[in-house]
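Final paragraph of the annual report: two paired records, presented back to back.
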Amino acid sequence: MNSLLFLHDADVLPGPVGALRLLADDLDVDVPRHPGFGTPHDATTAHWDSVADLAQHYLTTTTDTPRHLAGAGFGGWIALEMAVRAPHRFTSLVLVSPYGVKLSGPTEPDFADILLLDPTEIIELGWADPTASHDLRMPGHPADLPDSDHERAFADRAALARYAWKPFLHDPRLRRWLHLITIPTLVIAGSHNRLVPPRHSAALADLLPTARYLELPHTGHYPYLERPDEFHRLVRSFLRGEAP
């Protein structure tokens, strides 16, 4: 199975969290932080203002050797932008409730407004069991954040707003190029995800020529955190070319 590039969502702690630790038993799992989210590139990329900038960054700074690509939420949007630009660079694509593609009308929201919701609301909408939430960092959450992590959480939100505020959480040009993603693709959603409704992920999968859609019951926006064993089993099978 070789190597997996996993692009993280907003508000998720750095590193191979949840099921990513399990996948690392079989794969070389790379989970880079996005420029603006606490990296050596933050100062030189402070003028970047689109997810296309992030996609181009990863395409020009990561290995040319074909490998698996995955992304969750905000990271799923980046993965989609990369896959339409250079599908030959990747052997497969896993998307976990990605933002990035607007499927409803101009006045109908596709996604919850994660930039305006407070941490309690994001957890209530993003977890099937909010009391089990973990591995998230937002301004004011957890309550006992040290000052340095609190500042980091605010800086992460500022970076997210710069990339995703306008147009809100989508690229209006992305949908027209989705047909170029012909690599094996798995779209995963949680049945209780109220940040990105599972119907959006299912409709997105229908627009991807080779995509399969899987919905995990009693799971929210972060299945790799909330159901790590099940997520690991499904993704591992998919990457091996087996039916998940």
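The closing record of the year follows.
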Amino acid sequence: MRTTFIDTLTEMAAADPRVTLVTGDLGFGVVQKFAERFPNQFVNAGVAEQNMTGLATGMALSGRIVFTYSIANFPTLRPLEQIRNDAAYHNANVVVVAVGGGMSYGAFGMTHHATEDIAILRSLPNMKVVAPGDPAETSAATKKVGSGIGPTYLRLGRAGEPMVHTGPIDWQLGKALTTRDGNDATIIATGAMLATAASAADQLTETHGLKVRVLSMHTIKPLDSDAVVKAAEETGTIVTLEEHSILGGLGGAVAEVLCEACVPGVKFQRIGLPSEYITEVGNQDYLREFHGLDVETVAAKLAALLQQQPSTKRLAA
């Protein structure tokens, strides 16, 4: 996703001189070519994320479309006051980009884990929250958020995420994408967990004969409430999957929709991280497996949920 993002941003910067990249003194293996090609559209703000965000807001209010860029928590939690009081309050065209969402930087420990960011950012007025599921979604999302739609949080993986979509996609802000169709249950995934969701659905088809719908909820705010309610009505069972705390993220957002929609008989489970600081150390795959975010565990949890009680699908009259 990281490479796709910078490649897409480079195309945008070539076509629109308002597109500007501000970094927090990192990522030069990735952004160096951009900096050399567009010296008037690039700023290294140094290890000073608060200044980076304030600077970006000022440039945005002067007519630019500004991307701030750093890893995991650094562009979000450290300058949260500037994001809230400067960028979001003024509805400025500032796109806060975090590379390495979730536990991508697993071996560096909890200081480098972005596991509460979605909950915090989606609570800010005017702020959009986007977490693409694969490189194809990353390219489409970058183009959209860079078109000047106001303050946006773009949460990316790190590198090496597989392509889930096999053909062209109609990516729209706030509209979920269906990557697997089915009526036995639904997995709603966000960010880089989309590949895990698709593999878990495939595994359940092979082992249990189940047809599991998979929705890529790449936009968490504004959430595609219609897709959530439709999935609840048509499949009767929903599991949310995210590399994030189960509090306030995708699972919380979907739960809010389901409760207010009053869809009867829906079985629902959030799969994510507990509200605890991660003390284990290892790479992302190890940490995902440790915390039950691997394909086998996700498939087993959904199968168990389906067996807890008979599905009570709402049938069309």
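The chain has two domains: 1-156, 177-308. This concludes the annual technical report; the extension proposal builds directly on these records.
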